[in-house]
Design goal:
6hp_glycosidase-like_sf; Glycosyltransferase; 14 helices; three-stranded antiparallel beta sheet; Prenyltransferase; 8% strand
Length: 353
């Protein structure tokens, strides 16, 4: 008798478990036979978005596919711990080294362990995670922020990007949790996370001004760098600028363009801030982007009632799955996004027993 698939999270009035299963299937349909998980079959692939899509596969019970995506990334890692900024059909399109691409595998591996309890997977991928986060710490600047990229000569660029750094804050914290799991000492990561957290909370001048992008608004909350009253203040400050009632979140403040992934990421930030009803409202607002097969269009130029770009990406669909999981709170990895305090050292120690 075939094994029944695991239940998926449900968000009443927004998404059923069966609808989310179709979304997970739509992501899986874009995966290559070798495990590569691009934006769409034969299209662009970068490490960050591939990890996000793999996390959605794990939420959907497609653990073998998620592991294949992580193994593919491990096979592509370069000696310095980095990945190319862009691949296509297994070939490098852009060889540039970007810090957020290097860091995000740690988040994916910790998420996969929460979903599966597969310690063998962690042991196999730990050396890849270690090389990647060692690179990230080497890219930290004197301000505590982390350079967005390496120059051609291998030195860190002086520019730091707020969204990427918030993602790296989450990556370092999950990396430290993985180190606890495998019994490794990573004092450099702990120092890097402390300095980066301080920069995200108190040194806005350490980051390039990209305040027109909604990601710079909500991502420090999503990643757990801003919590409590600071998180509430941050979310309130940008709400009227970026939220379009009934449609979702603008990608940039000065364009009539809402995007699904940003809307779902705001939902994750709202869940992290203890506002599940508001998170559910945002998840519901972006359902106009859903296609019949369960995939999602990237965005809508609402002034023209036109989908743009004309693409349905794995990472947009993945953001929906992760947001639904966080809002429902029923999955084994839901707290990774819904409860940033779950990555505190004492909470991790209790989780690991």
């Amino acid at each position: 008798m075939p094994e029944r698939p695991p239940p998926l999270p449900e968000v009443p009035g927004v998404l059923t478990g069966d609808q989310l299963r179709r979304t997970v299937a739509a992501i899986a349909a874009e995966q290559s036979a070798d495990g590569a998980l691009p934006w769409s079959r034969g299209g662009q692939l970068d490490a960050w978005d591939s990890v996000e899509a793999a996390m959605a596969l794990d939420v959907g019970g497609e653990h073998g596919r998620a592991l294949a995506a992580y193994d593919w990334l491990a096979g592509q890692q370069r000696a310095d711990g980095s990945w190319a900024a862009e691949y296509r059909d297994g070939a490098v399109v852009s060889p540039a080294v970007e810090s957020n691409h290097a860091g995000y595998l740690a988040v994916g591996v910790w998420h996969s362990w929460l979903c599966t309890g597969d310690a063998g997977m962690v042991d196999r991928l730990w050396p890849t995670v270690r090389r990647a986060l060692d690179l990230v710490t080497r890219m930290q600047l004197a301000t505590g922020a982390i350079s967005w990229a390496l120059r051609p000569d291998g030195t860190p660029d002086d520019t730091a990007l707020l969204t990427g750094n918030a993602s790296l804050f989450q990556a370092l914290r999950t990396g430290i949790a993985l180190a606890d799991l495998v019994g490794a000492a990573v004092p450099d990561w702990e120092l890097a996370a402390t300095g980066l957290g301080r920069a995200l909370r108190t040194r806005p001048g350490a980051f390039a001004d990209r305040s027109r992008y909604s990601m710079d608004w909500y991502y420090p909350v999503l990643a757990g760098a801003l919590t409590g009253a600071a998180a509430e203040e941050q979310l309130s400050a940008g709400w009227d600028t970026f939220v379009v009632p009934g449609l979702g979140v603008r990608c940039v403040a000065d364009r009539p363009w809402v995007t699904g992934a940003e809307t779902c990421e705001l939902a994750l930030a709202l869940a992290a801030a203890g506002r599940p009803d508001d998170a559910t409202e945002q998840l519901a607002a972006m359902q106009h982007l859903r296609a019949e097969d369960g995939s999602y269009w990237t965005g809508l130029v609402y002034a023209d009632d036109a989908r743009w770009p004309v693409e349905r990406t794995t990472w947009t669909a993945a953001a929906v799955v992760l947001a639904a999981d966080a809002v429902a709170g029923t999955g084994p990895a839901a707290a990774l996004f819904a409860d940033p305090a779950a990555l505190d050292r004492s909470a991790v120690t209790e989780l690991l027993g």
